[in-house]
From TrEMBL:
Transmembrane portions of the chain: 40-64, 70-93, 206-230, 272-290, 310-334, 354-374, 386-405
Predominant place of localization: membrane
Protein name in the entry: XK-related protein
Family statement drawn from the similarity comment of this UniProt entry: Belongs to the XK family.
Localization in the cell: Membrane
Topology in membrane: Multi-pass membrane protein
Coiled-coil boundaries: none
Species: Triplophysa rosa
Cellular-component GO terms for this entry: plasma membrane
Family annotation (PANTHER family): MEMBRANE TRANSPORT PROTEIN XK FAMILY MEMBER, XK-RELATED PROTEIN 2
Pfam family, one: XK-related
Amino acid sequence: MENNNTNDHDITEVAAQQQSAVNENGFMTVINHSRIRPPFSVVCTTVLYCAEFICAAVLCSLYHKTDDVVWMGLSITFMLVPSVLTQLTLTFVHRDLGKDRPLVLFMHLLQMGPIIRCIEALIVYYQAGRKEEPYVTISRKIKLKHGRGLGPALEWEIGHSERKLAIHRNAFKRTAVIQAFLGSTPQLTLQLYATIQEKYIIPARFALMIISLISITYGALVCSVLAIQIKYDDYKVRMKPIAYLCMILWRGLEIATRITTLVLFSTVFTHWVVLVGLVNLFVFFFQPWVEFWARRASLPENVETNFSKLGTTVVLCMVTFLYACINIFCWSAVQLDLADHDLVEKQPRWRRLAIYYTLRFVENVSLIILWYHFKTDFYEYVCTPLLVVQLIVCYSLAVLFMLVFHQFCHPCRRLFHYNVEDCLQCACCWKKRQSLPPTDPEVASQDPAPPDLTSYLTERETDIVDDILDAA
């Protein structure tokens, strides 16, 4: 067996040298380990958490000095609630309550759990590879080349250090999403609303708004990458830099436009915006449950060990609430399936994606037009028609970048049955056929039916072991 430090070869080169290693099950065994990647996601999530917490604390102290009790109370709420949920998530994933680790639990009580977890991940990374360690599991993936599956599934050994880092990455992915959509999103909305109402901006508030927007964009990016990895878990997925850039532009424009639209609408219709938010929340919260009850499915088993049906229901409600909060501001990139053990529907539905962005575009345009007609005198020094056009154009650009990503930058785009180009061509053909005069029914019946663009991606029948290492 080769040492862990001699793993610089590309996996395809190793596979080419070991054609005789294909076993009876059709898997090609790759003996050498893959190089352990640095925990960049862990460090990035920790930095965003600390930066946002510190900026919010400084801003709350300024609110206290100026006796802005309402702004201070809401800022503290949006700072502490996601922080407590983050500590509970990290403690739950690492199962600290069943271990004798008083220092770690004390750090979590001080809301410094991400810091101690980040230090642990860095220690594991720097100590990895110094001595050969036995593997704990085997990962099997199909190599993608030019967007298509290449040869038999490859399998390689997973050591203890890689497994520990994978647990850290998965835990921090959850905390990044929770922090983004249960903390950063309401915090950014609040501070932008306070800025408009007070008609001035302070440096601490501006810094908090920038950090919150970065945190939300990063959380949405994590959701998109996780959706790809869950739907194509039997493939070795690697994202290119251009794909990340396209997703950042897509998510950043979508979230910034949505929050700005809601805040502007709330400055004129303060109470009606609450109704808009609640309607969105209830629709996305009950949509997975309605589908669950319509199928007459049963609750998934073994969501977590030692969980009763009541505990499983509580966990599913929390997951559904987070799912609804994400969809209020941007596309969640995944669809919940409460009857499945993984809780995620792995077959993409293009129809839902089209319906979501169509309705969201109509809603944003309606809200911004209502604000434009009933705006106050405060905006007399702002070119409001230009602002309306900018918001509409920015959301249209977000949709455009989303289409570009799925058409050109998606790592598994060649595995789609139909892509964006096929949908557009089918729509054009349908309009052209509608404009033609009716033909003989007997002749028309001989024409092949148009492809069903909403059909699911067929399931892969390859038995693949779950891989927890493909965390971006």
